[in-house]
Every structure is written in structure tokens, then in C-alpha cells.
Amino acid sequence: MKWYPWLNHSYRQILSQHQAQRGHHALLIQALPGMGDDALIWGISRWLMCKQPDGVKSCGECHSCQLMLAGTHPDWYRLEAEKGKNSLGIDAVRSVTEKLYHHAQQGGAKVVWLPDAGQLTEAAANALLKTLEEPPKNTWFLLSSREPSRLLPTLRSRCLLWHLAPPGEGQSLQWLQKNSAAALNERTAALRLSAGAPAAALALLDDKIWQQRQRVCEALPAALQGDIMSLLTVLHHDDAARRIGWICSLLVDAVKWQQGGGQYISNPDRQAEVIQIASLLPASAIDASLRQWIICRDRLLNVVAVNRELLLTEQLLSWEALLNPASASSPL
User: Fold this and answer.
1) What is the pTM of this model?
2) Which residues contact 272 (CB under 8 A, 6 or more apart)?
3) How far is CA 316 from the centre of its chain?
4) Measured distance CA(275)–CA(248) in Å, rounded
5) Domain shared by 249 and 153, yes or no
6) What total of structural domains would you count in the chain?
7) Given a cut of 50, is residue 261 above it in pLDDT?
8) Which residue range(s) make up the domain with 65?
């Protein structure tokens, strides 16, 4: 599992608490996608399992370390939804928690990792809560969550919340420069579009994905001056929600430009398009447009079995009516 330099500070701080016998039995890590929280938790897990750690480093040689490296340690549990499902039920939680009350097979620590605590159903969360309230000896729970506020308050209250904050933009741009051939403006755009998460920015800079984003950026001003429905072919893809996000970022940048905040735009590599949109739409129209697109994206992500093509078509027609009310109301 790839390690990232911005994880070092959190790793040392968390393990220093364990070394001082003050480690919390349930650690809830809040992190954006692309921050590497899975690597951080893996590193912490290896140290907790290691029989002869060297400071904050696991030895890599003891039997427990070898089992961890092989992914076969019997006292390390990964709790997540089955493939194709998005919820983690009570049976899976009970199956693991019952094992925790038995003696560790390797005679050391027992670690439970939840890569996405948000997958827990309410019943599963309550079942886990009982174990968190009275954890077995030398048992550690490591949870990840993008939005801890969506978890049960009682579950959050039993955990130590650790926010894995993105590194500074300068540090992230240096890291991206070492890992990507993209120009500075492109790296900056990818980083800002990824909310500052460097690994997510690197993934966005992948040639195929970046070309898709470029196509959206080029199509938007043209559609605003011509046929808005032409955006349907650009948006109607499996990653439609992401593409809508790119449209929203351009609209927000247009408002920033109108207000004299050009240095803060998220798409510095597409400044020409941002200026063009800013000249085409007044701030009030951009605000109303953003509200429409955010609602559309939310439905796309959360409505079960949504008809993507129909939803996008309705949104584009509504947007056209918003921007051109005269033509929308004229008789055929």
C-alpha cells in the first residue's frame, strides 16, 4: 500500500499516544478521498500487531508482521459491505465482534478496520456500539468516514475523531510535480478540484479522465451561446455526477471572476472559458443555475434506479428555460 509524506505527522502523533499508554480504543479518521487514510490505518494496524516494534516503526520481521504483509493475520478484521452492496448489516458486525471476545490467535492485539463507517446500517451501528462501550482487552477499532456527522451520535461519542487535513497547496504541488508531467496550471486545477487531496488530484490528471474534463470545459461556453441540449452527449456517462461537478466549478469560478477574485479560481488552466462564462451570464443567473445543478447531482447520486438520461434531459431543459425565459415561453 502506497505511503504518502503528508501522513507522517498524523502517524507519529497517533502512535506516540499508544506509546504513552493513552491510545484510544476507537479511532475515527475523517478524510477526503485521495488523502490516503487507508494507508495511514494500515500503518497503524501493522504497528499495533507487531511483536517487536522499533519506536513508531513495525519491525517487518516477526511472525505477526509477516502475516500482516501477507494479508492473512487471523486477528486483523476488515469490515465492509459485500461487493455490489452499499450497506453493512448487523450479521457481519456480530460475526466479527463475537470473535473479539476470544483469545487472540497470535497472542497479541486484535484490530478491526471499517474502511467506510458510513456503510453501517442503524442496527449494525448499534451492535458495534455495544462492543465499543465495553471493548475486549487489547482490541482496537479503526474507522474511516468522509462525513462523520452522518454517523449515529452515540457511535461518534465513543470514538476519538481525527481529522486528516490536506497539506498546504505548495507542498501538494511539489508532490504532484514529482509524480506527474502536467503543467503548473493543470496541477493547480486538479488539486483545487479535488479539495486539496493530492492523490485524488493525481488520479484526476490521468490522461483519459483529464481529457473528459477538458471536453466538458470546452463544451459549456459553446452550449451557452448555442444549443444547451448539446451538453447531453457530454454529460450522459457513468461519471455524470463528476462531470456536473466540473460544470459547477466553472460557474463558481465565473462568479469569482466577476467579483475580482480571479486568483482564487479552481480552473486556472481554463481561464478563457471562465471569462467567457462570466461575460455571458449575470451573477443572479449563475446562482440559480448552480442551485439547479446541485439538486440534479444530488438526485443522480441518491435516487435509487434513477433514469440518468431522463434526469439530465429534464435538467438541461429547465436550465434552458432559466437562461432564456422568452424563448422557452414563446409558442411553437
Assistant:
1) 0.91
2) none
3) 27
4) 15
5) no
6) 2
7) yes
8) 4-161
